[in-house]
């Protein structure tokens, strides 16, 4: 599958959700990196230049939430495609980078997989 | 009006003012007080005996003497303005400041010689505080509700993840299918949750709910969207949360059932979800153009899905009918209001 070359970073502090997402994405043929907070996410992105897509939760412990993470990733690594998720309906979409997608929780992993494929299709 | 009628009229006005439970003042053209209600003296702690000879701005310790208010009252006396809902802070030494709303109007006697102004003064301090508290409570409530919705969404995501993880781990294909169906059921309830969060009241728009539901069912259960699709045809019905959840679960079960049985060997086709209502009657039809029901009806083993559909339909006071759609299968869930009445009569 041509997904094999696509690397995805999953940023989620809830371990059960993260594990399930990793398995679903790996099954779909992606290479998956994980982080449980924004700082780890930045470290992962610095260490792995192959990452093309970041899928992040908005609500995470620590200083930076997913929205700020998305904004800084957009500034530092403009080509990275970003998908943001939250259980909050009232997300300030304006705070999101223009091309980023927002998915409300609970989401179906299949919907995320489809979004990743659409966003990385050339 | 002659002089004596005018006197009668003034006397009547004075009597009404004196007994008014709302603070009221009657002023003449020079803004001198002609009459004051006892409620005015009480509410604003002004000696009733000292009122009669004073002008409005001399009342109390001068707390009523605002330049702007005086100008407005003079303009009202001249017939050039009306004071409506003029707000000011009533500041008195040794007393907490009160917020008052003043309205004044010129009384229209046919004889223009004696100008009369009727002033009503309302103390809105407590009402304003109550409003503020209420607005604060409403805001707190909205924040709490958002927080609850957020937590519910997160919990549902965790539950959905556990079900998918379990489905992945089990060896038996049958158990895997059950766990995946359970995941779809959770997502079905989550979709209602999202619709409810989006609506200001507790009603759910069935069309957008079913569309979202079928999209999510398709995403998780259909491996090849080119072969199988789900089409949704729903009128503009809006129902309450409980009925929506039941209807949504029925749709979930019937669609899962059709996906499992109607299209074996990579057969392609469409599942149609149709809901229409007429006043209190409604009909939900889930049909497919697949292989149809097995010849031997006994070959169909009643699974959890069938039980859920039967129980929910009973709850919705609806009747289930299965028919041959040629090709495929049609399940009709039908609620008739008069059928419900028959039911009650029988019960009685």
Please describe what this structure looks like.
The complex is a heterodimer of chains A (122) and B (348). A five-stranded parallel sheet of chain A has the order 2-1-3-4-5, with helices on both faces. Chain A has a single domain (2-120), classed as Rossmann fold. The mean pLDDT of chain A is 87. Chain A is built from four helices and five strands; from the N terminus they run βαβαβαββα. The two termini of chain A are 15 Å apart. Chain A is α/β, with parallel strands linked by helices and 122 residues long. Chain B is of the alpha+beta class and 348 residues long. Chain B has two domains: 3-123, PAS domain (Beta-Lactamase, 2-Layer Sandwich), CATH 3.30.450; 129-347, Heat Shock Protein 90 (2-Layer Sandwich), CATH 3.30.565.10. In chain B, the strands form three sheets. A five-stranded antiparallel sheet of chain B has the order 2-1-5-4-3. A five-stranded mixed sheet of chain B has the order 7-9-10-12-11. Chain B is elongated and about 105 Å long. At the A-B interface, α1 and α4 of A face α4, α5 and α6 of B.
Query: Could you say which overall geometry of chain B the principal axes of the C-alpha atoms support?
Result: elongated
CATH level-3 fold name of chain A: Rossmann fold
Low-confidence runs of chain B? 341-348
Counting H and I runs of at least 4 residues, what is the number of helices of chain B? 9
According to CATH, the fold-level topology of the largest domain in chain B is Heat Shock Protein 90
Pick out its properties.
heterodimer, A: 122 residues, alpha/beta, Rossmann fold, five-stranded parallel β-sheet, 4 helices, B: 348 residues, alpha+beta, Beta-Lactamase, Heat Shock Protein 90, 2 domains, five-stranded antiparallel β-sheet, 9 helices, 48% helix, 23% strand, elongated, disordered C terminus
């Amino acid at each position: 599958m041509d997904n094999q070359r696509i690397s995805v970073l999953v940023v989620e502090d809830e371990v059960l959700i993260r594990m399930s997402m990793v398995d679903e994405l790996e099954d779909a043929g992606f290479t998956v990196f994980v982080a449980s907070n924004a700082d780890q996410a930045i470290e992962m992105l610095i260490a792995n230049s192959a990452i093309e897509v970041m899928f992040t939760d908005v609500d995470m412990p620590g200083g930076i939430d997913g929205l700020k993470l998305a904004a800084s990733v957009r500034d530092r690594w403009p080509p990275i495609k970003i998908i943001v998720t939250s259980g909050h309906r009232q997300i300030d979409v304006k705070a999101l980078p223009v091309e980023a997608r927002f998915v409300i929780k609970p989401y179906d992993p299949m919907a995320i997989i489809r979004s990743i494929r659409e966003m990385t299709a050339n | 009006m002659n002089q004596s009628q005018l006197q009668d009229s003034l006397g009547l006005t004075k009597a009404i003012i004196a007994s008014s439970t709302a603070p009221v003042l009657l002023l003449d053209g020079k803004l001198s007080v002609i009459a004051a209600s006892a409620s005015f003296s009480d509410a604003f702690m002004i000696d009733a005996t000292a009122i009669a000879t004073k002008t409005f701005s001399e009342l109390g310790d001068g707390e009523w003497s605002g330049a702007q208010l005086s100008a407005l009252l003079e303009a009202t006396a001249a017939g050039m303005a009306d004071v409506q809902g003029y707000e000011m802070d009533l500041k008195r030494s040794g007393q907490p400041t009160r917020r008052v709303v003043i309205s004044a109007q010129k009384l229209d006697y046919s004889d223009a010689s004696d100008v009369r102004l009727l002033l009503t003064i309302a103390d809105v301090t407590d009402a304003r505080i109550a409003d503020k508290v209420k607005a604060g409570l409403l805001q707190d409530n909205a924040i709490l509700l958002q927080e609850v919705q957020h937590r519910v969404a997160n919990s549902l995501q965790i539950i959905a993840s556990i079900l998918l993880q379990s489905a992945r781990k089990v060896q038996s294909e049958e158990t895997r299918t059950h766990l995946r169906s359970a995941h779809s059921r959770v997502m079905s309830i989550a979709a209602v949750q999202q619709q409810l969060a989006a609506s200001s009241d507790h009603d759910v728009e069935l069309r957008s709910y079913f569309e979202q539901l079928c999209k999510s069912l398709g995403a998780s259960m259909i491996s090849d969207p080119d072969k199988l699709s789900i089409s949704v045809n729903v009128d503009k019905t809006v129902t309450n949360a409980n009925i929506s959840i039941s209807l949504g679960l029925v749709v979930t079960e019937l669609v899962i059932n059709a996906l499992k049985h109607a299209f074996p060997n990579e057969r392609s086709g469409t599942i149609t979800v149709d809901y229409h209502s007429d006043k209190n009657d409604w009909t939900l039809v889930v049909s497919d153009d697949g292989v149809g029901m097995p010849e031997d009806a006994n070959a169909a083993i009643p699974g959890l899905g069938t039980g859920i559909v039967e129980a929910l339909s009973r709850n919705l006071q609806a009747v289930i009918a299965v028919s041959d759609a040629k090709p495929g299968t049609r399940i009709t869930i039908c609620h008739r209001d008069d059928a419900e009445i028959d039911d009650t009569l029988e019960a009685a």
